[in-house]
């Protein structure tokens, strides 16, 4: 057999296509895990338990002969929620996230059963206070667990997904509670409110143990605590920006139905549906954009959209303007919801998620309360259109915080 000269072989080899080294593509981290799916169960349970009776409790108090107690029940619920949100991280440090979440679900659901046998005004207030404490524990402890279960590279998208999971039940439960109470009475509402959070308890043991499966869920309390974290400008600025937008929500949900009394009844109902619906959608979009381009770049657009939407409510006599305002404001608010929360989580070390959750949720509740309270003082003197315009104007100074946040980091 004749062998080819070495030079011929070399020439033949040179004509072959060059071999390329195998390329490896790093797949993005998995977003939805089994533990996160189990966490969704408690998210849905707590959302139904909070929102289903939210508008029913004032109706129940009014029917029980306590006209003043109708508003007082909501105020009690809100104040108890804020107070417990600030101390829940300390509770978590003592008993752990899973036990704290279980306690919150029990406190949110079980006390409602008392209302099926008593409508005494004092009982209503006590039940409201205990339920507020339970909800605070659920959102703070549960929020910290959620943050630990989401990959850091996809945290914005993951938190947006959680916002959708919690937002849709709340969106449906709020009007459903009023409809059911009007059609079937209060008892069915109270039964579902009691059962939904308690059923969610079955998912808690499946959540990862803080020391083993989830390294973020460390055994000790948050390093700086809530007050220490509030002194951190990197957290205080996004929280303040978010509180400004939630103040506008408080004005909207409190006074829009009153401001549109001269219109068809569907106008306010549709606007109050469009606003949270658009917020839910924009949270998802903001989460995906923020993970790619950074959360800080979304703060200014969120504020501008919120202010523009609020300004549209000046035209309360025009249904199209009211609905458009709800859409634009809801979009901006959803962007701020996701961007501020994600930004705050990325600026803390492990074990401080509880403090972030407490601060963010307290900003939500305190902002809404402050907005409704301050607008109540001005609306009698300025009227509804001027109050909405003033609310829109108050949002704009928060842009200075956005600029300061960019230049300081």
UniProtKB/TrEMBL annotation:
Residues 31-409 form the Major facilitator superfamily (MFS) profile domain. Gene3D superfamilies: MFS general substrate transporter like domains. Keywords: Membrane, Transmembrane, Transmembrane helix. GO terms for molecular function: transmembrane transporter activity. SUPFAM superfamilies: MFS general substrate transporter. One of its GO terms (cellular component) is plasma membrane. Coiled coil: none annotated. It is a multi-pass membrane protein. It is found in: Cell membrane. InterPro entries: MFS, MFS_dom, MFS_Exporter, MFS_trans_sf. The chain crosses the membrane at residues 36-54, 66-87, 99-117, 123-152, 159-180, 186-207, 239-258, 264-285, 297-314, 320-346, 358-378, 384-402. This is MFS transporter. It comes from Actinoallomurus iriomotensis.
């Amino acid at each position: 057999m004749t062998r080819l000269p070495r030079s011929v072989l070399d020439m033949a080899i040179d004509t072959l296509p060059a071999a390329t080294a195998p390329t490896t593509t790093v797949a993005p981290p998995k977003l939805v895990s089994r533990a996160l799916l189990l966490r969704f169960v408690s998210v849905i349970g707590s959302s139904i338990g909070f929102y289903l009776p939210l508008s029913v409790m004032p109706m129940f108090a009014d029917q029980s002969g306590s006209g003043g107690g109708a508003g007082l029940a909501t105020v009690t619920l809100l104040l108890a929620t804020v107070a417990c949100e600030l101390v829940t991280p300390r509770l978590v440090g003592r008993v752990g996230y899973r036990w704290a979440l279980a306690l919150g679900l029990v406190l949110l659901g079980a006390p409602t059963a008392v209302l099926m046998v008593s409508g005494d005004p004092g009982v209503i207030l006590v039940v409201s206070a205990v339920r507020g404490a339970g909800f605070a524990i659920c959102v703070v402890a549960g929020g910290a667990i959620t943050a630990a279960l989401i990959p850091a590279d996809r945290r914005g998208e993951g938190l947006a997904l959680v916002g959708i999971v919690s937002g849709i039940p709340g969106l449906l439960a709020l009007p459903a509670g009023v409809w059911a109470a009007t059609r079937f009475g209060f008892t069915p509402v109270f039964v579902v409110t009691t059962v939904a959070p308690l059923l969610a308890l079955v998912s808690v043991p499946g959540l990862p143990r803080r020391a083993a499966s989830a390294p973020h869920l460390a055994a000790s309390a948050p390093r700086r605590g809530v007050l220490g974290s509030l002194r951190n400008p990197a957290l205080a600025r996004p929280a303040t920006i978010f509180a400004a937008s939630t103040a506008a929500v408080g004005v909207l949900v409190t006074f829009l139905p009153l401001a549109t009394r001269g219109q068809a009844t569907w106008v306010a109902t549709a606007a109050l549906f469009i606003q949270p619906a658009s917020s839910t959608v924009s949270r998802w979009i903001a989460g995906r954009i923020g993970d790619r381009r950074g959360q800080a770049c979304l703060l200014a657009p969120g504020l501008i959209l919120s202010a523009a939407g609020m300004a549209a409510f000046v035209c309360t006599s025009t249904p199209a303007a009211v609905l458009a305002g709800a859409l634009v404001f809801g979009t901006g608010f959803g962007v701020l919801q996701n961007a501020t929360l994600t930004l705050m989580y990325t600026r803390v070390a492990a074990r401080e998620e509880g403090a972030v959750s407490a601060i963010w949720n307290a900003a939500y509740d305190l902002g809404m309360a402050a907005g409704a309270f301050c607008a109540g003082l001005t609306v009698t003197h300025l009227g509804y259109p001027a109050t909405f315009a003033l609310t829109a104007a108050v949002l704009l100074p928060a842009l200075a915080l956005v600029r300061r946040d960019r230049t300081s980091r």
